[in-house]
Amino acid sequence: MPRLGTIAAASLAVSLAGVASGLVTSPASADDTWQVPQSASITIKGHGYGHGRGMSQHGAEGAAREGLGWREITSFYYPGTAVGRAGGRIRVHVSADSTDDLVVVPRSGLTVSDLATEEAWTLPQKDTNRWRVVNLDGRNRVQWLAGPRWRTLRTLQGSGAFAAGGEPVSLVTPGGTRAYRGRLAAVPLSGGRVTVNTVRLESYLRGVVPLEMPALLSPAAVRSQSVAARTYAAYERAHPRSSAFDVYDTTASQVYGGVGAEHPASDDAVKATRRRVLTAGGAPAFTQFSSSNGGWSVRGTLSYQQATKDPYDDWAGNPVHDWKVSVSDTTLESRWPSLGNLRRITVVRRDGNGDWGGRVTSLRLVGSQNTVAVSGDTMRSVLGLRSTWVTFRVG
Question: 123-149 in b/e burial notation, b at 16+ Cβ within 10 A?
């Protein structure tokens, strides 16, 4: 995805973690049908990037450029929520570490702890460039690399974890070395193990915000992103993804890169909004966000997920407010092979908001051999479209 663009990554992140849209749809207009000749090029014109619920990240930038602060921006995109506070720690699944052992780079103050007994030991200075916790013969062992061989320092009663008194610890993964604040633990899960980074919520935000929104956008926009991301994390922590961790470090939750992702400008935004979250009914709100809503936010199932015309999304720097792509009729035929030769595209229902009657919720593809009913979300996924707010032109 493009890097105003990590903004776009957030739209996918939250659509994968999203809830049902809860749309009130309306029948499409009579002219929402296109005949497709034997060989045709189909132009798909659209608005926005992502599911459109909650905050438009490009819209937040547009609002900031008009002088709105983070409280006004988040109030617009999450109407009816209140500003509250959240702190504590969060458990993050580190997806990059797919190995059977937990390996870190030595550093001063490095400790290992036994999660069964909560005992911790400062690791001694050794002539090594690696420490690890590994399960061998059903026992977790703390080892250091001595030349080509691993040597055991201690056997643990439970799983093991590394920390360095709040300083970053460098995790060795198949893709390279990454530094994380807080604690790195090898946690058993479903017959295997996962690496979990337990970190203070504010430190977690430092590794999230610049990956979800470019740090050098307007300060008010980045502060809005900080509040939305902190709230989203607090919501997921209250609804953890598994017994072992609260959130993923991917677009399945929010993208998190640890220390290497941190940026001074987004650090300032995190600090300026320290511990601030949005609440509904006294609990953290489900603050979904996406790259661009195209000019209308989308209604969801929650009271603060409203369909509202957005005057801020269409600013000159938003490259996905309007867009178009072209595909051949054979592309659709290959994606839905039961059609045979595609003869007609009919939009059946839209959400009723904005150009063309709004976002497509269902359509019908008519072919020489079969007729296929397709949801708007399926169409978007199969064709790789930026959103479901589209219309067609056949030529």
Answer: beeeebebbbbbbeeeebbbbbbeeee
- Do 277 and 205 contact (CB within 8 A), yes or no? no
Q: Are 23 and 361 in contact (CB under 8 A)?
A: yes
Distances from the Cα of 203 to the Cα of 222, 257, 289, 299, 368, angstroms: 16, 11, 21, 32, 57
Gap between the Cα atoms of 172 and 178, Å rounded: 7
Distance CA 65, CA 67 (A): 5
pLDDT tens-digit series, residues 71-110: 999 999 999 999 999 999 999 999 999 999 999 999 999 9
CB 297 within 8 A of CB 308: yes
Domain layout of the chain by residue ranges: 18-51+316-394, 55-89+201-287, 90-200
Within 8 A by CB and 6+ apart from 341, the residues are: 38, 329, 333, 367, 368, 369
Contact between 68 and 175 under an 8 Å Cβ cutoff? The reply is no
> Which amino acid type is present at position 361?
T
Q: How is residue 23 written in tokens?
A: 């749309």
Q: Both tokens of residue 267?
A: 């650090």
In contact, 180 and 171? CB cutoff 8 Å = yes
For residue 194, the cross-strand partners are 187
Instruction: Say if CB 92 and CB 256 are below 8 A apart.
Output: yes
Mapping DSSP to helix (H, G, I), strand (E, B) and coil, where does residue 8 land? helix
Task: Return d(Cα 158, Cα 19) in angstroms, integer.
Answer: 37
Reported as a single tens digit per residue, the pLDDT across 238-284 is: 999 999 999 999 999 999 999 999 999 999 999 999 999 999 999 99
> Helices 6-16 and 201-212 meet at what angle, rounded to 10?
120
Q: What are phi and psi of 224, to 5 degrees?
A: -60, -40
9 pLDDT more than 80: no
Q: How far apart (Å, rounded) are the C-alpha atoms in residues 92 and 241? A: 10
Angle CA 374–56–254, to nearest 5: 85
Q: H helices within 144-263, ranges in order?
A: 201-212, 219-238
